[in-house]
Structure formats: C-alpha cells, structure tokens
Write a structure and sequence with these properties.
By secondary structure, the protein is an alpha/beta fold. It folds into four domains: about 100 residues, Conserved hypothetical protein from pyrococcus furiosus pfu- 392566-001, ParB domain, CATH 3.90.1530; about 50 residues; about 100 residues, no CATH class; about 30 residues. The chain has a five-stranded mixed beta sheet. A two-stranded parallel sheet has the order 6-7. The longest helix has 18 residues.
Length: about 300
C-alpha cells in the first residue's frame, strides 16, 4: 500500500496505539539520537491519522530519538528538520497498522517474545488467524506459538496481586535490595523460563515444566541477575541438564557460575566492519555476540600482557 510523503511538525506526532513495541532501551535511544544529530534521519517514519494527530506505526524509536535531538541539540534539529519530520502517511485501518508494525519489527528482530505475543493476541481479538499472520509476516507456526505462550505466562503472573511485581531488569547487575522491599521479577526472566522449559521438555529433561519455570524465575530474581546474566544462566542450564538429566541441579550450578564472573555493561561504539566480523564469528562459534567479543578481547589482551591467564 503506497502512501503520501509529508514533513510533519514534531508536536503532531505520537506513538501509535497500534505500534507493537512495548518497551524501549534508553541507552539505544541515546545512541540513535546522537546518530541522527550527526547524520540526519535515514528513513522516514510511517504514520496514520489518529485522534487528531499522526500516530507513528513504524519508527517509534526514531521519534523518541528525534525528540531528544530537539531537546539536547536544537541547532542540529533545525538543520535536519527545518520543515518537520519526514513521514510516509498511509491510510491504515487498525488491523493493517498492527500487521505493518509487527512485520517491520519481526524482520528487524527488534522485539522480545512477549512483545510478539501481545501483538498476536491483539490481532486474534480482531479476528486475524495464526495462518493469516504466517502468510502476511512469514512468522512460523512454532514462533507464533512460542511468543503467545510466553505472553500468556507473563499475563498469568502479572494479573495476580499475590505474585511479585513485574518490572524491567536494568542493564548490569542491580544493587542488592533491602529484604523488606518487594522482590521484582523481570519480563525477561519469565520469558526465558518459559522458552527454556519448553526446550528441556522436548528433550525429555523435565516432567513438571510449570514447577521448573517458577523455580527459575524465583531463583534468578532472588539473585538480582541482569537480563544478560539471565540469558547466560539459561544457556548453561540447557547444556548442563543434557549432561546430568537434572534441570534443577543444573540451574543452581549455572547461577553459581554466572555470579562468579562480574559483568559490567558499557555503551561502546564499534566500527561497523568490526561488529559485522564479530557477529559472523559468534554465529560460527554458536555464541552470543557478547560472549564472542569477550573471548576475542580477552585473547588479545592476554597476548599483549594486559590480562592474566586464568
């Protein structure tokens, strides 16, 4: 569906209620704002008329970053957006807007499983079938089922007042909280537990998936693990459970191992060719990008004598 190009005043733009992204990383918005300040906007936002303004269906992070540019670097904002923000205005009904937003984020791999699941639930409420979602977006039935299952698991926990409050985990390991304060559980912990229990069940390593999911969420929450540490724990659990056949023991061992390594998160700008090469290395090694970069940097720093060998 084609649209009309317009440069729209920033104050007339809002995040569309049909934009499927539920959360944003402030650090990523900061980096994107700096890039827009230096290089301008690379592609226009996709918007629809909504409640007297223009709802941003595709480009919510860019909109937030542009607002930061205007706030922090007004001269740069005037330079790049003298007549307004470049947009493509499309005549989208709510169902089409949701599908557009879901498709864009799916193919850029920018959402978490629960965000996909929440969007799928909204589409189902509009009468869209899973087969239609598959045909329009090319999400596989397995991906759709997994995302919807994670979303249901999160809803099940958050709707019960007796359960822990759900909040986003902050980057890096948060400081220990006083015992009297309510323990917070990240969506990442719930989503990871749900996906991991399914993997282990398929391999015949779990008899009670729900019990394991509860144990996983409680343990990583008690330890105050960051989102990246939670992912590391899940990977170690899967590897260890395959060796021992005991997922709970594997969980305890994985948490101990992850906690022995102090992780520090920093915003670092890499050259594109460097990060592309590291990503290719990580893919061939079956590692996360973080693990691959740590391995490569550690090896070079040891070679140069800046890091002791363990």
């Amino acid at each position: 569906m084609s649209g009309e190009y317009r440069e729209i005043p920033l104050e007339e733009l809002e995040i569309s209620k049909y934009n499927v992204r539920l959360r944003v990383d402030p650090e990523r918005i900061d980096k994107l704002a700096y890039d827009i300040k230096e290089n301008g906007l690379h592609e226009p936002l996709v918007v629809r008329r909504e409640d007297g303004k223009y709802g941003v269906v595709i480009g919510g992070r860019r909109l937030r970053a542009i607002r930061l540019v205007k706030e922090r670097w007004p001269d740069a904002y005037r330079k790049h957006f003298p007549r307004g923000v470049p947009c493509i205005v499309k005549d989208l009904d709510p169902k089409e807007a949701l599908l557009y937003s879901l498709s864009e984020n799916y193919h850029k791999e920018t959402l978490s499983p629960d965000e996909y699941g929440a969007a799928i639930e909204r589409l189902k409420e509009m009468g869209v079938t899973e087969q239609e979602i598959h045909e329009r977006i090319r999400m596989t039935p397995e991906e759709i089922e997994r995302a919807f299952r994670v979303w249901r698991a999160i809803k099940e926990i958050t709707k019960e007042p007796t359960k822990p409050e759900v909040a986003l985990a902050r980057p890096g390991r948060p400081p220990e909280k006083k015992k009297e304060r309510p323990r917070k559980v990240s969506r990442k912990a719930i989503a990871t537990a749900t996906i991991l229990s399914r993997k282990l069940s398929r391999k015949g390593l779990l008899r009670e998936p729900k019990d394991f999911e509860k144990e996983f969420v409680e343990r990583v929450s008690e330890e105050g693990l960051s989102t990246k540490e939670i992912v590391k724990v899940a990977k170690k659990v899967e590897e260890e459970a395959e060796k021992t056949g005991n997922a709970i023991t594997a969980l305890e061992k994985a948490i101990r191992e992850v906690k022995t390594v102090e992780l520090v998160e920093r915003v670092i700008l890499f050259r594109k060719d460097v990060i592309d090469a590291a990503a290719d290395y990580a893919k061939k090694k079956g590692q996360t990008l973080d693990d691959a970069i740590n391995e490569l940097l550690s090896a070079e720093l040891r070679r140069r004598g800046y890091l002791r060998r363990k």
